[in-house]
Amino acid sequence: MLTPKERERYSRQIQLLGIGEAGQNTLKNTTAVISGVGGLGGTVALYLAVAGVGKLILVRGGELRLDDLNRQILMTDDWVGKTRVTKAKETLIQINPDIEVEAIAAYITADNVDSLVQRSDIALSCAHNFPERTLLNAACVRWQKPMVEAAMNSMDAYLTTIVPGKTPCLSCLFPEMPDWDRRAFGVLGAVSGTLACLAALEAIKLITGLGQPLLGQLLNMDLAQAEFNKLRLYKDPNCPVCGGISHPVETAQQQHPVNV
Ligand SMILES: [Zn+2]
Asked: Which numeric CATH code is attached to 4-255?
């Protein structure tokens, strides 16, 4: 049940068709794990926090650097050199003290991924490297938890929502690790923030039933040219991660453009 304060805090979104008080209550009862709390994951966390997702688990190792500050909007200048997730938690709780935030100053590993996914209802894949993403994807398939996959490289970004048993998984999309696995690419905060807002929206849609999430579709964005297109994804029946899971096959054709 929502408290009177929560009912007032979220009243503008409770008005939305597809959310209502029931959807807001579902958001409150949701735990989301976010891997990577940088320009992308930190902004995802911000929008899930203000939307009232009841518990956020932030997973990110490392300390804040000065060159993070052009995009990591939960951080402040005086925090350089200190643990990122600690500050992310502090900022989020200042903005919305009605939610719970757990900060884990570590990266996703084979040792921690299963327990993180098991105690979450949804995962947001925002890590800066592909090994963490593949670990999270495989755990989400194992535990049948949905995962929003958001990634970017310079001015390009992509987004899809994975529901095990229903959609292709990340390993169907990338049987081989792509070569964008690097951290030092150029990035604008407005680009990571744009992708983050869309990723948070995917999670909110999936949790509440609002609208239509990107199931089995990849949204590609060239933000330099403001060009967006959607591709229908192909579920690999021999995928080593999700190939054993049966699902109703939709009209999946590899990289078949659909209308945006
Ligand atoms: Zn797969």
From this structure: 3.40.50.720
Q: Residues for the chain: how many in total?
A: 260
What distance in angstroms lies between residue 92's CA and the mean position of ligand 1's atoms? 34
Task: Determine the distance separating the centroid of ligand 1 and the alpha carbon of 21, expressed in angstroms.
Answer: 35
Helix 41-51 vs helix 84-95: angle between axes, to the nearest 10 degrees? 20
The pLDDT assigned to 182 comes to 58
CA dihedral sign of residues 221, 127, 203, 122: positive
Residue 83 carries which DSSP code? Answer: B
The alpha carbon of 234 and the centre of ligand 1 are apart by a number of angstroms equal to 9
Mean pLDDT of the chain: 92
Q: Which amino acid is at 83?
A: T
Ligand 1: distance of its center to the CA of 162 in Å? 10
State the Cα–Cα distance between residues 97 and 99, nearest whole angstrom: 6
- For the segment 90-115, the average pLDDT, to the nearest whole number, is 98
Percentage of the chain lying above the pLDDT 70 cut: 92
